[in-house]
Amino acid sequence: MPPVPPVLTSRLRSTGGRLVRRLGLLPGGEPDGIGEDAALGDVALAQRVAVFFPEPPRNAYQVEQWLEPLLDLDRKHGVVLLTQDSRTTARLRTLTRLPVHCVARTATLEGLVERGALGLALYASHHPRNFQFLRFASLAHVYVGHGESDKAVSASNQLKAYDFTFVAGQAGVDRVRDELMWFDPDRLVVVGRPQLPAVAPRRPRAAGEPPTVLYAPTWEGAQPAMAYSSVATHGAALVRSLLAEGFRVVYRPHPRTGANRPDVAVADAALRRAFDEPAARATGSTVDGGAALADAFAGADALVTDISSMATEWLPTGRPLVVTVPREAGALVRPSALLEAVPRVTAGEAGAAGALLRRCLETDEERDVRARLRTHYLGDPADGPAAARFVAACAEVLAARDARRPARTTEGPR
């Protein structure tokens, strides 16, 4: 059989790649790259701020939590979302009035930057494709992330790629400063947690309703160092213990639970089935169907979670918190103020979690230290609303950028 000409091979690969993308057959973590580049060829963006988000739809939650604060920023500077996945684009367009453009080609990105008024780029994740946008030296680049937690990724060496990193509180500053070598701490800006919903008080319990424990574990992570999930290691024994103690249990797993490990997916499915059993039905226990975080918090008397942003976001409620101890040997757990202050549960102790939660609700010995941790992790409320601090910090970075490179409008060159 004669060899296939290189030109034909290239065309076959290109056609095959397009077909795979359009049929949605890409691996789950890959954006489909089906862009709207043809329609963007002569567009001049008037917005000053771009949120670059190349993630597939399973990670859309990372930017969705920013949509409300971005509206505040949009009123002052104009915000556009730039994606690289048509499915993520469609989803975001149903959730926000901010413009969303799907851009597959770096040449199109370059044209949008060169023709438009963009001066600031924000990033909610560390996707490798961020480097397609980080290459533009005319922009200021800020990592805003999607969670304040003691996970190892919160102090990733990838932060060095950005001009600034916005953190929620002093805990974020300390974490990065202590972990990263040759990192200038002046590049860390404390803005609070603008995407955190307003704290709602505990909803009154109905007569005879038992206390509710929210069990909100994280996912298994993409690397061994991030294996903080308790679903497969603690979940079954923990839930059984809580039910046996008479608690109402609400199971709220991370949206990516089971995405990377079949054993975690199996454990998650088994936990969900357990809530159909008589012991769970007797207390009104249930699986969270996707309620807003504020509603989930308002309906709970205590939280059991893993090392994750859920632990820090719970702090403003003032109610008891228990954090699991990862069983996975590779999980990277650094000492932190929160982990040293709150009760911890190992996999071997999960069967006694009910008694621990009962003690926490009756005595709550950690209440005062949790109040101090709130300021340490999420910023001082006396410094003003986090949304306003976020907008002000973006404005300051934009002004500093414009002082070095005069701002362009869409009506003329720099």
What is the element layout, followed by pairings?
Elements: H1 6-22, E1 49-53, H2 61-64, H3 67-77, E2 79-83, H4 86-95, E3 100-102, H5 106-115, E4 120-123, H6 131-134, E5 140-143, E6 164-167, H7 170-179, E7 188-190, E8 212-216, H8 235-244, E9 248-251, H9 262-274, H10 278-282, E10 286-287, H11 293-298, E11 302-305, H12 309-314, E12 321-324, H13 337-341, E13 344-345, H14 353-363, H15 367-378, H16 386-404
Total individual domains: 2
Structural class: alpha/beta
CATH superfamily of the largest domain: Glycogen Phosphorylase B
Mean pLDDT: 92
- Rounded radius of gyration (Å): 23 Å
CATH fold label of the largest domain: Rossmann fold
Question: Distance between the terminal alpha carbons, to the nearest Å?
Answer: 58 Å
Q: Considering DSSP H and I runs of 4 or more, what fraction of the residues is helical?
A: 25-40%
CATH architecture of the largest domain: 3-Layer(aba) Sandwich
Please tell me about this protein's structure.
By secondary structure, the protein is α/β, with parallel strands linked by helices. The radius of gyration is 23 Å and the shape is globular. The strands form 2 sheets. Strands 3-2-1-4-5-6-7 form a 7-stranded parallel beta sheet. The model is unreliable at 12-21 (pLDDT under 50). The protein contains 16 helices and 13 strands. It is 37% helix and 12% strand. It has 2 domains: 28-190, Rossmann fold, CATH 3.40.50.11720; 212-378, Glycogen Phosphorylase B (Rossmann fold).
